[in-house]
Design brief:
two-stranded antiparallel ribbon; alpha/beta; binds adenine
């Protein structure tokens, strides 16, 4: 899978994308991520990429043309139209199910906005979908883009050691994950649940499923109701 990120802060993205599991996945060619600086595509002699909003109001708006030219360069490089996403608090909220669908796509383009937003006309022209990472407002689209890349990347073959790593986790089947424990068996007078020391595989699985149901009912009653309704 290939992901291209158009941003005014490519170093901010690279810093995150070069570390840990994502960094390793990129080195091992499980995933290609390219960060493009929108400023490299302005024709303005002072390198401007933003201007005042028509109609007045606070802040600055990112201009259409540098974004359009940046996107065109990427499309010309690849030769096919990618799935094009604008990260925005106005978008539909990212879910595990949507991330799973995105993980099946060969090529995704992510546009990160800044300041008071982006000229609407370029969104009309090049964007297929707006995605939000939650009902709150951040200073820019970089952190949301990185959240999206991380969520999608960990579902790609070879990124995590085994597919069961993400299939057993919170949200994958609509339930939150059961509690986990590691050594020592007693810590601060708290014992690890007996069943986990029993070596009885079926009992362990039954206990974990019951815990998942209980945790979801307690912490996310909305997800619990969805789960029951889908059954
Ligand atoms: N840009 C600013 N806030 C955002 C959010 N919550 N999700 C996606 N992009 C954003």
């Amino acid at each position: 899978m290939r992901i291209d990120i158009a941003t005014l802060f490519p170093e901010m993205c690279e810093a995150v994308l070069s570390e840990s599991i994502l960094g390793r996945a990129r080195k091992n060619n499980c995933l290609t991520v390219n960060c493009h600086n929108i400023r490299d595509y302005t024709l303005d002699k002072h390198n401007r990429v933003d201007d005042m909003p028509y109609g007045g109001g606070r802040g600055m708006v990112m201009q259409a043309d540098p974004i359009y030219r940046c996107y065109q360069a990427i499309e010309a490089q690849v030769g096919v139209v990618p799935h094009r996403i604008y990260l925005s608090p106005k978008g539909s909220v990212l879910t595990q199910a949507r991330a799973c669908e995105l993980a099946a796509m060969p090529h995704i383009f992510l546009l990160c906005g800044h300041y008071e937003g982006v000229d609407e006309r370029v969104l009309e022209e090049i964007i297929d979908e707006e995605i939000s990472i939650g009902d709150y407002v951040l200073t820019g689209g970089e952190l949301p883009a990185l959240v999206l890349v991380d969520t999608v990347a960990r579902m790609l073959p070879g990124v995590l050691p085994e597919t069961c790593c993400f299939e057993e986790e919170s949200h994958f089947h609509g339930l939150l994950e059961y509690p986990q424990y590691t050594r020592p068996a007693v810590w601060h007078d708290k014992k690890v649940p007996e069943v986990l020391l029993s070596g009885h595989h079926q009992n362990v699985e039954d206990w974990r499923f019951a815990q998942s149901l209980m945790v979801t009912r307690e912490k996310r009653p909305d997800l619990y109701m969805d789960y029951l309704n889908k059954k």
